[in-house]
From TrEMBL:
Protein name: Pectate lyase
Biased composition (Basic and acidic residues): 415-424
Disordered: annotated span: 393-450
GO MF, one example: metal ion binding
Organism, as annotated: Nocardioides iriomotensis
Record has Glycoprotein as a keyword: yes
Keyword Membrane annotated: no
Annotated keywords: Glycoprotein, Lyase, Metal-binding, Signal
Signal peptide positions (record): 1-23
Length: 477
């Protein structure tokens, strides 16, 4: 495998050759593919949100629900916050690990989960004793989940195949953004979509270390992200770090349009990215991704592989600006694909894709490693090690969390005083010209469309996401 310096020289050489004629889409130019305006001209779910579903309001304007303990259920728990009805904006006054006894079911729409509001070490979800179903199941629309860690693990004495970190499925699951989270140690997929899920974005997540040999009845089953189902469509997968999953980085097995843009994929065993027409013909736009073979990678496997299960006449793959072990010469995008599947390659992207700010693969490598994952309020040792392993080219497949040091302890931290319990600390409210004696979370002090509590939550992540500078920074933690 080339060294990191070798990869940089390789990509720089490719970029320097203008004959390649690469046109990368940007949010300002509209790109080379006839993309529609970002978020369709609507207010993004949060500053910088892009891709399908990015205009969802989530829980904007709803009641603020504070998670105040690490209990599996009951008052103050995350389960109570997510399974309760009504429009809601979830914040945290506690940090640590929550042992989830069974899947938390989100089936009432219009909810935002702002994990970045937790003090100290942030929030990690773990499968508790007896859990055979996984961590969180989304079965509704207009959901935003940010800055949480989903680390299922394989509880002692539990056997089964569905210990996923996050599932999104069923008809009616749409307009969802999963952004800046960390997923690892699942028994099946770290993340999956199914059935009639649509208009969903996965952005800036770390999806890593799916358990290779755990309790899955098929044996080896370390998987990243599955996009599948008979009617699943309109998916954006951008700026994620996939590392140390044998496959599905991601796998597209659904009809409709799917964007795979500016992701970093490291140390895959099977082909990194798979696509199949098992449920209909996908149209996949694969742009500016950086594929890196790792210690467990088979040099004879191509970066992209197709699994045909029926007529291929409408199935298509569009490739542009991707870098990987098999794309070392000008015009070699076809060489990324298993030879027998190169008939699927087309010259143009599907029309009408949402705009995603896109950079060249080398720059995406740097930006994704610097900003992806649930790193606010705290970059835990699991994510830090994954990132460093990618930089050093030394990752490995994981059979059990103990293989990589087990569950880290998270600093508890202390929430800042919030007299009116509106999700915003008193000191921040004072600096923003708000009242610490009344709930003004749903107001909009600067008139930009984001409520006051959203402004606070967004300000917390200025270090890793673009922000509106009108309101003050949150106080130092």
């Amino acid at each position: 495998m080339p060294t990191r310096a070798g990869w940089r020289r390789l990509v720089s050489a490719v970029v320097a050759l203008s004959a390649f004629g690469l046109a990368i889409n940007t949010a300002t130019s509209g790109g080379a593919h006839g993309h529609v305006p970002s978020c369709g001209g609507h207010l993004p779910a949060f500053p910088g949100a892009e891709g399908y579903g990015c205009a969802t309001p989530g829980g904007r304007g709803g009641r603020v629900v504070t998670v105040s303990n690490l209990d599996d259920s009951g008052p103050g728990s995350l389960r109570r916050a997510l399974e309760s009805p009504g429009r809601r904006f979830v914040v945290f006054a506690v940090s640590g690990t929550i042992d989830v006894s069974s899947q938390i079911i989100v089936d009432d729409p219009y909810v935002t989960v702002a994990g970045q509001t937790a003090p100290g070490g942030g929030i990690t979800l773990r499968a508790g004793p007896g859990n055979v179903s996984g961590l969180v199941d989304v079965r509704t629309h207009d959901v935003v989940i940010r800055f949480l860690r989903f680390r299922a693990g394989a509880p002692d004495g539990v056997s089964g195949e569905n210990l996923d970190g996050l599932n999104i499925w069923e008809q009616g699951s749409h307009d969802i953004v999963i952004d800046h989270n960390s997923f690892s140690w699942a028994v099946d997929e770290n993340v999956s979509t199914w059935d009639d899920a649509r208009d969903i974005t996965f952005s800036w997540n770390i999806i890593a270390e799916g358990l290779r040999y755990a309790t899955h009845p098929e044996g080896e089953h370390s998987k990243g992200l599955l996009v599948s189902g008979d009617a699943t469509r309109n998916m954006s997968v951008h700026h994620n770090l996939f590392a140390d999953n044998t496959a599905r980085n991601p796998q597209i097995s659904a009809p409709g349009k799917v964007q795979v843009v500016n992701n970093v994929v490291f140390n895959y065993v099977d082909s990194a990215l798979q696509t199949s027409n098992a449920h209909g013909s996908p149209h996949v736009d694969i742009v500016g991704n950086y594929f890196i073979a790792g210690p467990d990678s088979d040099p004879d496997r191509y970066e992209i592989d197709g699994y045909p299960e029926g007529p291929q006449d409408t199935w298509s793959i569009h490739l542009e600006g991707n870098v990987g072990p098999h794309s070392r010469t000008i015009g070699s995008q076809r060489d990324l694909v298993t030879p027998e599947d190169r008939n699927l390659i087309v010259d143009t992207a599907p029309p009408g894709l949402p705009t995603i700010t896109t950079v060249r693969a080398e720059q995406a490598y740097d930006e994704v490693l610097a900003h992806a994952g649930a790193r606010v309020p705290y970059l835990d040792s699991v994510d830090a090690q994954v990132i460093e392993d990618v930089r050093q080219g030394r990752g490995r497949m994981v059979d059990d969390p103990s293989d990589v040091g087990g569950w880290p302890s998270l600093p508890a931290g202390k929430p800042r005083p919030d007299q009116d319990r509106d999700g915003m600390p008193d000191t921040w409210e004072a600096n923003a010209g708000l009242s610490a004696q009344r709930n003004d979370s749903g107001g909009d002090v600067d008139g930009d469309g984001y409520t006051n509590v959203e402004e606070y939550a967004n300000a917390l992540v200025r270090s890793v996401a673009p922000q509106d500078a009108d309101l003050p920074q949150p106080p130092a933690r």
